[in-house]
Amino acid sequence: MYYPEELVEEVRMKNDIVDVISSYVRLQKKGNNYFGLCPFHNEKSPSFSVSSDKQMYYCFGCGAGGNVFTFLMEYENYTFPEAIKYLADRCGTELPEVEYSEEARRQSDQKSQLLEIHKKAARYFYYQLKREGGRQAYEYLRGRELSDDTIRGFGLGYSSIHSNDLYQYLKKEGYSDALLKESGLITMEERRGAHDKFWNRVMFPIMDVNHRVIGFGGRVMGDAKPKYLNSPETKIFDKSRNLYGLNFARRSRKPNMIICEGYMDVIALHQAGFTQAVASLGTALTAQQSILLKRYTNEVLLTYDSDEAGTKAAMRAIPILQEAGLFVRVINMKPYKDPDEFIKALGTEAFKERIDQAQSSFLFEVEVLERGYDLKDPARKTAFFDEVAKKLLTFSDELERNNYIEAIAGKYGISYETLRKKVNQMGMTYGGATPVRRPRDLSGQKKEKEEGMDTSQKLLLTWMISDPKYFRAIQKWIEPKDFTIPLYEKVARMLYEQQAEGRINPAGIIAKFEDAGEQRQVASVFNATLKQIETKEETEKALQETILKVRQNSLAKAAEMLDMTDMAGLQKLMQHRRELEKLHISLD
Question: Based on the domain organization, do 64 and 38 belong to the same domain?
Fold first, then answer.
């Protein structure tokens, strides 16, 4: 451990895991636990469970799990010292100076060095922009009507036409080839040797919310392909969990966020005073990015390109943003393609008007739907209104549904009553309004089917933290050494120690494991699928069967290891087997 165990436990206990995770994930209570969409993989049905009692989380879809420290390390890409410092600051606990373990220092040092490399690279690219060799790039940016203040504020730069300039610079700064390769800025090839990933491009530093450079985007100035090139994912850069410009936008104090498609759109909007603009990083908007936005706003405005590709991107983004609990509106930029072109042509006041006139995402979706129908054809017009009626059924709130019926009726010249009847008819046909998605118990769904002894031993460990009565019943027959899987035995020993001290603390056990993979495994151990049992008798029977299976397996393993000449050992083994024949579980 990097800090005294008592201090780590104090910080963990002062930061309720439900409160912490709720600032990242929209949670809904179901029974004793809270459920939401997992922030570590894309999903449509909530399988991410957070337990207030156990102070741990677990995803039944992807297997992510751990305590409050693990969550921050996974989500924010923090090292353990960074996670405990964040939580200590959050709860007002002062941390002492500590000595790092060798592995902790190595990981922390590597991350710090990668951030340092990116900071130096950003400065180097900016320096190159102002030199004679960067004149073309500078003139390109000025030609896009960016001011020197904007260029400096966003740290825009230029990667030299020579394909190993940055490599040579960073080598002189003392960085190893292994670390430079890990940074994603340098490519190592057997044939070409070491060379820069970016060369002869305008460079856009990508920063995290704390203004640290974590990656780059590079744009060609001619017609070469690819037009944009992004840094690969590294230990400090995950493009699905970051947004370009969010480091500035999160402090804008505006009532919404504007989502653009590209870097230049974000920069142009910021220069025009719309400092709430952000963009995804070369990929379609992700659930993680939507959750990140939800931390800073309740409303987003989409300004995707007005062409077919931009429309499709908006249609994909809308449900993802709504799943995160965001209200979505769409800005109409026609006849211009994107915000950059629009502002250059019509100015900031016109763009403000478009923001005020932005339509709800539902009306935008209906407008897109309309493009597939010839409304001059009576049959196609009827088919269009059938589809609109189906979409209106997605509103479970009657008042909201009626408001949209009124809006669509007014826009398409149909009477409110006629459209309302059409919606009601569709409701009779399709079973009424589509219910609001609610968390479902997906604990029976496993990435891989778990069978045999592994499952039985996990079930016992889950039972042991579920109810003191279960623990006492299991403890009479099972010892830690009966868990034949090494990790489970280690966890069992910790549980028995906690039981002796009078308090079961699953989250504290997770904190004792430094390896992220082991933390996930321990979290899964404490979230084994328990059968739906209705009565006390059924519970006793299930416990008895599982205890018998685990104990018999333990005795069989012991027999395999026993020397046949060890008569005392054989007699003891026979005695244990005879005792097991008397196994009877009672929860009274």
Answer: yes
